[in-house]
Specification:
Length: 136
């Protein structure tokens, strides 16, 4: 007696199998969730150590001014000279009077550079500022 149905189906599957795509997507999502908190954004700086480090919560209108070991200024990730930094700070003060500036300075730079940034922030008319430190 013979078979009425063939061993292999001759019909084509017209659907895309999404299971492998979803597996890759979830693996990437988990990877980003695990890696993202460990990435520090900004310029690499050795911050001064303190028993009470600066809080990690930042307001929405917060900007970071960094001073690296070479004494170079950065606003966010953009390096700039003192004149341009002052102009940018003044522009921020005009657009939002509640702007907060976090000053990140390498622990080995001269104190004079930090005072220079503090004067620029004050001259720009920004009253909310904080010096960032890290835990001991």
């Amino acid at each position: 007696m013979g078979r009425n149905t063939p061993l292999t189906s001759t019909t084509r599957i017209s659907e895309i199998n999404l299971t492998p795509l979803m597996d890759v997507t979830f693996i990437l999502l988990i990877t980003f969730i695990m890696v993202f908190p460990t990435i520090e954004q900004g310029i690499a700086i050795n911050l001064p150590k303190d028993s009470e480090p600066t809080e990690a919560e930042a307001p929405d209108n917060m900007k970071q001014v960094s001073i690296d070991l070479d004494g170079q200024f950065s606003l966010g990730d953009q390096r700039m000279d003192a004149e341009r930094l002052l102009a940018e700070l003044e522009q921020m003060a005009l657009s939002d009077s509640a702007t907060t500036i976090w000053i990140r300075a390498d622990e080995r730079i001269p104190y004079k550079k930090v005072v220079e940034v503090l004067k620029m922030v004050k001259k720009a008319g920004i009253v909310n500022m904080s010096l960032v430190t890290q835990a001991e």
